[in-house]
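Tokens help. Consider this.
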Amino acid sequence: MVSLHSPPVLEDPTWNYIVLAVAALFEGFSWRVSHRELGRRRRPGDSLWQAVRRSKDAAVFTVFFEDSAALIGIAIAALGVGLSHIFDNPYFDPGASVLIGLVLIGAAFLLARESGGLLVGESIDRDQIAHLRNIIAADSAVESVRHLLTMQLGPDSVLLTAAVRFERRLNLDEVEQAIERLECAIKVQYPSIQHLFLESGTLKALSRSARYAAAHEPL
């Protein structure tokens, strides 16, 4: 508070600029690496922010957020030092410190929001869920798709469970073949779905019927 009310007079800012330039060099290199990694994972037409939102690798977007906040903070600090020196007004420097604090708060908020969803079991995005539903519904053996739930277990590991109603004309073997066909179709387009559970009331009914027929089959 003392530095805000009575900031010290800025003398020679040379070392300030040198320290800020070195910090910008190192942070810029780290930011470029994280930016390149996000770019590799970005879909065609997606903005950088959309790539961050889609990324489920906390290590990548955490580094990107931290380095972005650091570079913005360095720019604000350099601007504060420069304005203090040009206008001979020491209040620009503490004002820049306040802005840097706000930038860090904003970065912490974004990190908490993005990583918090992964901690509690975030689902994949809506477009992917709609596409998965279409893949299942497009199979000729499927009558309807009811509940479809996903959970992100890790950067490249997703759990998918779906309640599927198959055509009633199918027998047990045909339903099992349809399930195998659906599992292959889903995993080809979504390799990250490593845990897949398709629940079917039709399959359960057919299994009960098969067991009943086997139990009452004449010896």
